[in-house]
Amino acid sequence: MVELVLVVAVVLLIVGVVGSVLPLVPSGLVSLAGVWTYVLFGSEPVGVFVVVSLTLAGIAAVLFDHFAGPIAARASGASTETMIASTIGGLVMLLVLGPIGIIVGVVGTVFLLELRNGSEMDIATKRALYTTVGVLASSVVQVLVTLSMLGAFVLFVVVF
């Protein structure tokens, strides 16, 4: 019979993968919850290398989720002030507009602050577009990371 803790862990890992494309679902944290549910309550020990690797992957997913847009803004040449403000703008607009507010808040903040700081329209637009790509790319990275976590967990815990 399949152990209930294993089923819960795998379900959480699957929810993490699905959540990586759904707004407001902290996919990395949900995947980490799946791993650590089994580590703490499962009947079979999990190797240290596997636990550390999956934990680092989950932390990476969390970081991409929250900081990819602002980091892309910074990489495009936006100021550190703009990067920090875009993070705050995304969180505020999340509360106002829901999930789409994250993108609107981050991208809009970059665009408006770049204009306010004296950037030309084309430069402000370029930096806002880089930011948009960063935000959208973070979803792709989250899918890949959480899917890898699920695959590694199944491989090393269920198969081996």
Can you tell me about this structure?
This is DUF456 domain-containing protein. The protein is mostly helical and 160 residues long. Helix 3 packs antiparallel against helix 6. The longest helix is centred in the C-terminal third of the chain and has 39 residues. The protein is elongated. The two termini are 17 Å apart.
Characterize the biggest β-sheet. none
Shape: elongated
Structural class: mainly alpha
Overall pLDDT confidence: 89
- What value does the Rg take, in angstroms? 19 Å
E-strand count: 0
Low-pLDDT parts are none
- The N- and C-terminal alpha carbons lie at a distance of 17 Å
DSSP summary: helix tally: 6
Our count of domains comes out at 1
**Beta-strand level of the residues, as a percent range?**
under 5%
Could you state the order of secondary-structure elements as H and E? Answer: HHHHHH
The percentage helix is over 70%
How are the SSEs ordered, and which strands pair?
Layout: H1 4-19, H2 27-41, H3 48-75, H4 80-97, H5 99-116, H6 121-159
Organism: Halohasta litchfieldiae
Keywords: Membrane, Transmembrane, Transmembrane helix
Transmembrane segments: 47-67, 88-113, 133-159
What is this entry, summarized?
This protein is mostly helical and about 160 residues long.
